[in-house]
Amino acid sequence: MKKLLILFFSSLLIVLLCACSEGETNVPNEGDNAADTTSAPASETPENQTPETTAKKDTGSSLTAEGKDLRQMAVQYMYDMANVKWTATVLIDYSSKARESLVYKPGETYLGMIYNNCKTGLESFKSVLDADSKYTSELTNWFEAPGNSCSTSIDHAWQTVSPTVNYGYTVDMMPFYPKSGVVGIGSIDWSGYNEKSTATSVFKTNDKDTILEAYALMKPGDALMRHLEDGGHALMVTKEPKIFRNNQGKILPERSFLYLTDQNNLLNGKREFKSSWTVDAETSFADVYKETYLPVTVAELRDGKTEEPTFKVANKPTKKGLESAGTIRGDITSNYNIRTFEIAIRKDSADGEAALFVSSNPYAKEVSLKDFADKLSVKDLPAGNYVLTADVTIGFGTERLIEVAFEKK
Fold first, then answer.
1. How far apart are CA 328 and CA 325, in angstroms?
2. DSSP label at 204?
3. What are the strands, taking DSSP E only, across 46-97?
4. 255 — pLDDT class (breaks 50, 70, 90)
5. How confident is the model over 103-158, as pLDDT tens digits?
6. pTM
């Protein structure tokens, strides 16, 4: 079987500063005058609200967002990126780009995707791992090897449930940018921020209690971010927060905790294997506030609903075109970013062995079969019956959008 694999990588320059809390923070001893109470996490949405989707209509898709736990989907994708196990086969040295420790050495096993400035998702990274989870790509460049950073890892997790999220830099996670799809949490006043200032400007225009109460509203799938003059960092909340209040109802920041997962540039041995990922790190509100982190999310998680998946196919390939000229065509549009795009020419049936196969990870809402036509040469096939298929994968699953049977004479 002839098998071809094409990987797409998006490159962007991101200057990041990782200043997340390392390890766990101990709960302080209860003070003499603190007759504390433990409160459940507050909520911005009505109590007992369950995830919804927009009204069901003809979407050109059998996939559905209905009944899906959107927050769990985003968190699970984050976990999957953090926990993918792999073995380096080439030296991937980023010590001059980030921290001195950020070096992936041949023969060593790691947990979690590579940290770098290539904005790519788990699908792209897994596509360069063989059956033994060994890294098979020759790409090691800071901008090209399949990896991601603190902010772009969260972007990919959110993309699985949000058709509106669209950012690349930590600074773009500020709700100041409406087209990013990122929204604030709580009653924080963001008006003090502009493109020339930093997260600290928002802290100056909000009292401490306002920001602490916003932390208390956070739920799994939401994120903390900060942007400073020399970089920034972002982390995802992956477990329910633990909140403690005193008798007056005020949050005790040293006794209240968030559980955070992040991709960072510190490669260490704190996990089973070396990793640049921290998973479910217990971090106090006090530490988060001290480091000027702000709570953000996407509208779909805030509102508990998202759009139904929608696909459109234009310029569909035809039996006549395939048989007479071997014409590979078809333009596919999705309202969600397409995470994997697979085209195959299969023997005898739609489920048959692939005589020709192309896979890519576009992370885009539009793809075209004609871009792969040179890799799917019908004229080079032996005589026989075939089926051209095209499948797209988004966060909610895989959909076959093209299936055309033809005969090669």
1. 9
2. H
3. 52-53, 85-87, 92-93
4. very high
5. 999 999 999 999 999 989 999 999 999 999 999 999 999 999 999 999 999 999 99
6. 0.85
- Closest residue by Cα to residue 355 from 375, 331, 334: 375
Distance CA 367, CA 401 (A): 12
| Cα 259 to Cα 42: distance, rounded to the nearest angstrom | 16
CA pair distance 162, 222, nearest whole angstrom: 13
Q: What are the residue ranges spanned by the domains of the chain?
A: 37-306, 311-408
The per-residue pLDDT for range 187-212, each reduced to its tens digit, is 999 987 777 778 889 999 999 999 99
Instruction: Please tell me the distance from the alpha carbon of residue 88 to that of residue 93, in angstroms, as a whole number.
Output: 11
Show the CA angle centred on residue 406, arms to residues 405 and 407, nearest 5°.
140
- CATH number of 311-408: 2.60.40, 2.60.120, 1.10.860, 3.30.1050? 2.60.40
Give the number of other Cβ atoms within 10 Å of residue 374's Cβ: 9
Asked if residue 11 has pLDDT above 50, the reply is no
Task: Tell me how far apart the alpha carbons of residues 134 and 202 are, in angstroms, rounded to a whole number.
Answer: 45
Burial of residue 368, with CB atoms counted within 10 A of its CB: 0-12 exposed, 13-18 middle, 19 or more buried: middle
The answer to whether the CB of 88 falls within 8 A of the CB of 107 is yes
Q: What single letter denotes the amino acid at residue 290?
A: K
DSSP string, 279-301: EEEEEEHHHHHHTT-EEEEEHHH
Strand partners, 260: 237, 281
